[in-house]
Amino acid sequence: MILITAAFIIIAINIVGFLIMMIDKRKAVNQEYRISEKNLWTVAIFFGAAGMTVGMNMFRHKTKHTQFKIGLPLLTIIQLVILYFLPHII
Q1: What predicted TM-score, i.e. pTM, was given to this entire model?
Q2: Following CA atoms 34, 30, 58, 5 in sequence, which dihedral angle do they give, to the nearest 10 degrees?
Q3: CA angle, 19 then 77 then 47, to 5°
Q4: 3-state secondary structure string across the chain
Q5: Does this entry carry the keyword Transmembrane (predicted)?
């Protein structure tokens, strides 16, 4: 039961990550106040990196920034490894 709940939470966080990349891209195009990189990385660190990576590529947002271009996919891989081994530890 706890793993199902955790899965739903992780899916929700990834949806949030995807949406904030979309919103930040829209704000960038419209030259509006943007979402800070600190907030973007906060969502990514709390297991939202996969959704943000998809959003980054789909919306072509932050793709020229090395820290995002390399960091988000790398963080996604690390998080997937953690999620794979977590049920074996619990």
Answers
A1: 0.91
A2: 40
A3: 40
A4: CHHHHHHHHHHHHHHHHHHHHHHHHHHHHCCCCCCCHHHHHHHHHHHHHHHHHHHHHHHCCCCCCHHHHHHHHHHHHHHHHHHHHHHHHC
A5: yes
φ, ψ at 32 (rounded to 5°): -100, 175
- Residue matched to tokens 């899965």: 7
How sure is the predictor about 66, in pLDDT bands with cuts at 50, 70 and 90?
very high
Range of the domain at 63: 2-89
Give how far the C-alpha of residue 87 lies from the chain's centroid of Cα atoms, to the nearest Å: 22
In angstroms, how far is CA 44 from the centroid of its own chain?
Answer: 4
Closest CA to 56 of 17, 29, 27: 17
The total number of structural domains in the chain stands at: 1
